[in-house]
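Subject: design request, 236 residues
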């Protein structure tokens, strides 16, 4: 019997917590265009602050990689890991601009004044811990995959309600920009790539080892942070 892949193990490790993180009532309201404007604004401003902890986290991870200088580097794991981190930084830089454009255009947003909620600080703390010098690339890659996997599945859940969106609301920024951003083929391929790299990095890590346990801990942290990051709304 082939050893269990780390990604498969993590997904099976806390299925209820994963469901809670990716099928939150806020996402149902977003998917059906019933989300209150102030709730969307709250999420946008906090996700923008989240990005400012994601960027240094990815910078820390990139600094840990050993990038080969040979022309055949594209095939080696070290280069593919570094390339993944570079892509993550490129993506999040674009998303930062997207958030700020949406805030200015749709919410008459003026920069400044926002402070991180305790839920956003939980993500900031998680990134700081997973990207610390004492942590391995494996642990950091687990954090990256966990956050992006949760976002992919969460927004796919929201997209699943598209048939319930009234015609007059299909032009809302949720349906033209935000939901497509995290449900498009390119983003799903990015998440799959991270998962494949994570499994490759974990290939020689025995199940039940200390590193394996650290990855489980990070997974649990992300699931808690993700469930609580969605603003609280009334169930419908």
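Subject: RE: design request

Done. Sequence follows.
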């Amino acid at each position: 019997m082939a050893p269990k892949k780390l990604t498969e193990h993590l997904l099976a490790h806390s299925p209820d917590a994963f469901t809670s993180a990716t099928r939150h009532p806020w996402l149902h309201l977003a998917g059906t265009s019933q989300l209150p404007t102030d709730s969307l604004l709250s999420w946008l401003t906090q996700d923008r602050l989240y990005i400012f902890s994601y960027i240094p986290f990815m910078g820390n991870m990139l600094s840990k990689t050993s990038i080969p200088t040979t022309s055949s580097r594209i095939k080696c794991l070290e280069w593919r890991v570094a390339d993944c981190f570079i892509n993550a930084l490129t993506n999040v830089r674009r998303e930062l601009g997207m958030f700020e454009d949406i805030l200015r255009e749709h919410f008459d947003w003026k920069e400044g004044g926002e402070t991180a909620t305790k839920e956003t600080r939980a993500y900031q703390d998680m990134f700081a811990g997973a990207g610390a010098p004492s942590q391995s690339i494996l642990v950091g890659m687990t954090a990256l995959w966990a956050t992006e996997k949760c976002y992919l599945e969460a927004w796919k859940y929201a997209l699943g309600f598209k048939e319930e969106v009234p015609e007059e609301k299909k032009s809302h920024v949720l349906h033209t920009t935000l939901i497509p951003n995290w449900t498009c083929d390119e983003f799903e391929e990015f998440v799959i790539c991270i998962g494949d790299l994570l499994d490759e990095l974990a290939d020689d890590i025995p199940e039940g080892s200390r590193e394996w346990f650290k990855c489980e801990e990070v997974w649990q942290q992300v699931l808690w942070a993700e469930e609580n990051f969605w603003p609280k709304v009334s169930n419908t």
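The CA atoms of residues 104 and 110 lie 7 Å apart.
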